[in-house]
């Protein structure tokens, strides 16, 4: 905690990722129910089999293109794009829209994870990286299950009845958004995505983003790479 506190903007990065995971917990809890409302279990399994391969494609793209000169900015810009996609794909009860939205997520998410690890490795002192990584991951990963436990009953007892025929939401927006149980889940997705956009927009305009970006630019390179270069026969020659 002392190491994290000495790095300008690091607490903000950990908090941002944890809050992002809080919002993502809603998708973790409800996505299967939403997908299965539109297709069979077998089809849903095949969809995820194909989508999972996109993470490998994303990893290859990262290896080919890199993460840009400022991975802190990459984290926020990719998140902005992901939340924008997430606002759009639940708007219609469409398998095509759903699969397209999930495909965009699977391709983009490795960029966020790789960027965060790159920032941590650059700004955290080498001898303390293991402790800081573990501390950050414990906070970030604890967030998703918390939301998953909370959002499911909230969806079942409020949002689904809200969007059923005769419900208040169905009367307000049912003409263009649709009605029924699945549309209640879709409404939760849209609201979560709007919160994600607000959170990311705030992060982009905050002083913590600028502080951490400056720290990243000013930090020395990875000490392991220097050690490897010093030990390389080519360097000695």
**Taking Cα atoms only, what radius of gyration do you get, to the nearest Å?**
21 Å
Query: What's the SSE pattern?
Result: HHHHHHHHHHH
Mean pLDDT: 88
Q: Give the CA-CA distance, first to last residue.
A: 43 Å
Helix content: over 70%
Q: Give the biggest beta sheet.
A: none
Number of E-state strands: 0
**Poorly predicted residue ranges:** 223-237
Give the helix tally. Answer: 11
Shape: elongated
Structural class: mainly alpha
Task: Report the portion of residues in β strands.
Answer: under 5%
Can you give keywords for this protein?
single chain, 237 residues, mainly alpha, disordered C terminus
Would you mind describing this structure in some detail?
The protein has 237 residues and is an all-alpha fold. Helix content is 84%, strand content 0%. The chain has helices at residues 2-6, 10-36, 41-65, 71-88, 95-123, 129-163, 168-177, 181-205, 207-218, 223-231, 233-236. Helix 4 (71-88) runs antiparallel to helix 5 (95-123) and helix 6 (129-163) packs across helix 8 (181-205).
